[in-house]
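Write out structure tokens for GH16 domain-containing protein.
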Amino acid sequence: MPGHWRAVFADDFGGTRLNPARWTTCYDWNQGGCTNRGNNELEWYRPEQVSVGDGKLTLTARRRTTPGTDGRSYPWTSGMVSTGRSSWNARPRFVFTYGYFEAAVRIPPQAGMLPAFWLMPASRYTPPELDVAEGLGSTDRIEMTVHWKGPAGEERTAAGRFGPVDFPAGYHVFALNWERNALTWYVDGEIRFRVTDPAKIPHVPMELLFTLAVGYPTVPPPGVDHARMSVDWVRVWQQLGAAAGHHGTGGR
């Protein structure tokens, strides 16, 4: 990035274990695992489905009946990481308001998966939400989405789509430049979507996440029993004098 930008967060996933000062392996609203029930997803996230090795982060989904601590049973288990809290009353590790977010990600080729690189409010409540890249029902097209509240408090979205590209064949760099007056999405260095309507742009601190959800918007077909999403590296940059704040609290 140019000299007027500063790197405020980075991980190259070296070594053999996830850095607990940067990441937790669940949302903070459950203990002993978690899920996103709002999407009726099929997975129960567990830390053993997250691994680091060979210079990359890997999230693995498996078709395996898994009891959740919420009293339900889930047909899949999977992995996720977040810069947020380890538990409800902890502090988030890192939150960001504005910045340039980029990561090299390889999405799985299997149908029925929802690999995502995204940001959610540190307040836990969405919208707003920023989806840097989602494999939403497709492995050759990427969705880039902003969620916001309408005048009556209803959720609204604006989305761009890029493809077809054989995304599972290799790593691709997905990025979002979140500014006070614009949102600009990039795929492999090229602008693919842009939003400038002030009503749609969030101005709240957000956590960064990588998630491999299962079963939304479609369930995996018979014969699909596992999938892997890999992240080679991730960076967050902010402009000097323009960022509203990045906080590394180390809450663990």
